[in-house]
């Protein structure tokens, strides 16, 4: 693989592209699914998914990240034999971890339903239980390929997984709602797609691995390094996973803890189960679903950043490592800041168009989006800085920072829910405060431990100004077209592409990215030529 293809930005672009595609597919299929489930069904589905994500995080979600880091470190030392041994031992680890997660979700479903106070939660949890086992195995394959700086298998498998997920989820939701007329059974049908998608992706990666097995074994035979002992490999896997698990657990558990606190406190205040489930559905499906679109791109960048930064750290190339860090953060801001502004100014038409049957809490969903879209910016910064610290070998610091933020977040949401009448807006405030605290603590650690200092003016000033200008122009165009056409769809078709064009031209000509940085972006050389033509 040549230098350009192995660069951080190009590898990030591969995963980012897959992240864009999968998130678009994911959001598109959840629109009809959400409209079929209704507010209450969405609440049950989102709570079940929150619990499932915690189970994945504790058991195997960190495997791709941990294995990619450990594999890249061994390959940096030309130890392909030990990288392959690590892969085989990680598979055994994944089988054990996946089975444990399966047992907890499947046999503990009734207890979890009682704990969360969500009637019908048992059904989707039992469907999701075997998915945890499949995803554990899937993570080992993805981590192994990512450790080789090959993001293509992961990217393709993510797309295949999401396509299968989309088709099965929509069909199963329709079938279950028609057959049982139950929100809980509809949520169970929706989770069938997750199971089917994960299984399809595992089959695909297994076949791809088998096609490469002869090449891998030939490479291993040329490596005469002493093989690592089993105990050492498992120790490395566990010690690398634990801090990643703990830091990611803070992210994942915060959502399900919010569901738990929100449900119980609101019930104690006299709100009905239907109202609580509906508000949870609005927050977790309509608001979070949209905000997570730009975050998906940044998550992909973070996943691809870790092995590259770990390689540079291992080789002691600190200046290059800090340069890569700066580039990733700048690209993240260039994606999330205009997304936040666009979601704010177009919150009402987007919610109205995408969720036509969810009308009871539409105004709540619009306000959540208008005030909470900044969440995609602060979450992206917290995710990137966490990965950078881990790539620098600072595994303990992100854990401590995430734990501090989680404790603050949990106390904040409880106090706001208990002693104010903010309701679901208390969730929004605590949800945004959580990544802000993590990002601030991570940046302080980066400065102290690695010497990297986030340059706020250089990183934020230009994209903020350009995004605000884009937002004003976009809203004005939407307002004019909507006044003439009386159609939300036509107005968005005109305003959204125009917003992208305005922002793209301004960010290119603002020198936010230097020519060298620009060439490493997706279609970077084309963008550089466009930039030069515009500036003539």
Descriptive notes:
With 536 residues, the chain is mainly α. The chain has helices at 3-6, 8-59, 63-76, 80-107, 109-116, 122-147, 152-180, 183-221, 230-268, 273-315, 318-345, 347-354, 362-372, 375-391, 396-419, 424-450, 456-485, 488-509, 515-519, 524-535. 55% of the residues are buried. Helix 3 runs antiparallel to helix 4, helix 4 (80-107) packs parallel to helix 9 (230-268) and helix 10 packs parallel to helix 13. The model has no long low-confidence stretch (mean pLDDT 84). The protein has 2 domains: 3-454, no CATH class; 456-536, no CATH class.
Gist?
Helix content is 87%, strand content 0%.
Which structural class matches the secondary elements? mainly alpha
How would you spell out the order of helices and strands? Answer: HHHHHHHHHHHHHHHHHHHH
Tally of DSSP β-strands: 0
What best-fitting shape do the alpha-carbon axes yield?
Answer: globular
Top keywords for this entry?
mainly alpha, 536 residues, 2 domains, 87% helix
Chain-wise SSE layout:
Elements: H1 3-6, H2 8-59, H3 63-76, H4 80-107, H5 109-116, H6 122-147, H7 152-180, H8 183-221, H9 230-268, H10 273-315, H11 318-345, H12 347-354, H13 362-372, H14 375-391, H15 396-419, H16 424-450, H17 456-485, H18 488-509, H19 515-519, H20 524-535
Helix pairs in contact: 2-4, 2-6, 2-7, 2-8, 2-9, 2-10, 3-4, 3-6, 3-9, 3-10, 4-6, 4-8, 4-9, 5-6, 6-8, 7-8, 9-10, 9-15, 9-16, 10-11, 10-13, 10-14, 11-13, 11-14, 11-17, 12-13, 14-16, 15-16, 17-18
């Amino acid at each position: 693989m040549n230098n350009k293809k192995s660069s951080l930005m190009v590898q990030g672009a591969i995963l980012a592209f897959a992240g864009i595609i999968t998130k678009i597919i994911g959001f598109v299929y959840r629109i009809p699914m959400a409209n079929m489930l209704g507010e209450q069904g969405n609440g049950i589905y989102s709570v079940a998914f929150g619990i499932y994500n915690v189970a994945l995080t504790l058991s195997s979600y960190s495997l791709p990240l941990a294995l990619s880091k450990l594999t890249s470190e061994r390959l940096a030392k030309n130890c392909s034999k030990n990288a392959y041994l690590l892969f085989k031992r990680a598979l055994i680890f994944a089988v054990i971890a996946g089975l444990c997660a399966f047992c907890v979700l499947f046999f503990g479903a009734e207890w979890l339903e009682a704990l969360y106070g969500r009637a019908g939660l048992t059904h989707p949890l039992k469907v999701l239980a075997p998915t945890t086992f499949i995803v554990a195995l899937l993570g080992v394959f993805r981590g192994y390929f990512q450790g080789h700086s090959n993001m293509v298998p992961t990217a393709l498998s993510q797309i295949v997984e999401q396509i299968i997920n989309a088709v099965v989820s929509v069909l199963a939701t329709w079938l279950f709602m028609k057959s049982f007329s139950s929100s809980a059974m509809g949520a169970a049908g929706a989770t069938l797609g997750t199971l089917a998608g994960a299984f399809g992706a595992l089959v695909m990666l297994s076949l791809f691995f088998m096609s490469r097995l002869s090449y891998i074994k030939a490479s291993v035979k040329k490596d005469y390094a002493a093989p690592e002992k089993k105990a050492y490999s498992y120790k490395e896997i566990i010690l690398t996973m634990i801090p990643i698990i703990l830091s990611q657990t803070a992210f994942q558990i915060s959502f399900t803890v919010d569901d738990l606190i929100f449900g119980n406190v609101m019930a104690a205040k006299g709100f009905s189960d239907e109202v609580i489930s509906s508000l949870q559905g609005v927050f977790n499906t309509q608001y979070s679903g949209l905000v997570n679109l730009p975050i998906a791109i940044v998550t992909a960048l973070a996943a691809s950043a870790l092995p590259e930064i770990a390689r540079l750290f291992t080789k002691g190339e600190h200046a290059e490592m800090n340069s890569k860090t700066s580039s990733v953060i700048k690209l993240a801001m260039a994606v999330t800041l205009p997304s936040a502004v666009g979601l704010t100014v177009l919150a009402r038409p987007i919610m109205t168009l995408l969720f036509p049957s969810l009308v009871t809490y539409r105004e709540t969903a619009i306000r959540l989006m208008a005030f909470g879209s900044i969440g995609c910016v602060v979450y992206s910064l917290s995710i990137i800085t966490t990965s950078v610290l881990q790539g620098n070998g600072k595994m303990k610091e992100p854990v401590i920072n995430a734990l501090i933020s989680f404790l603050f977040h949990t106390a904040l949401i409880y106090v706001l829910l208990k002693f104010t009448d903010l309701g679901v807006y208390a969730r929004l405030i605590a949800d945004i405060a959580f990544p802000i605290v993590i990002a601030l603590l991570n940046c302080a650690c980066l400065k102290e431990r690695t010497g990297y200092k986030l340059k706020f003016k250089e990183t934020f000033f230009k994209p903020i100004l350009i995004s605000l200008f884009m937002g004003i122009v976009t809203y004005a165009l939407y307002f004019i077209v909507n006044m003439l056409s009386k159609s939300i769809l036509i107005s968005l078709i005109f305003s959204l592409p125009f917003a992208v064009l305005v922002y793209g031209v301004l960010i290119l000509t603002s020198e936010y990215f230097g020519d060298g940085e620009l060439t490493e972006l997706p279609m970077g050389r084309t963008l550089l030529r466009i930039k030069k033509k515009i500036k003539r």
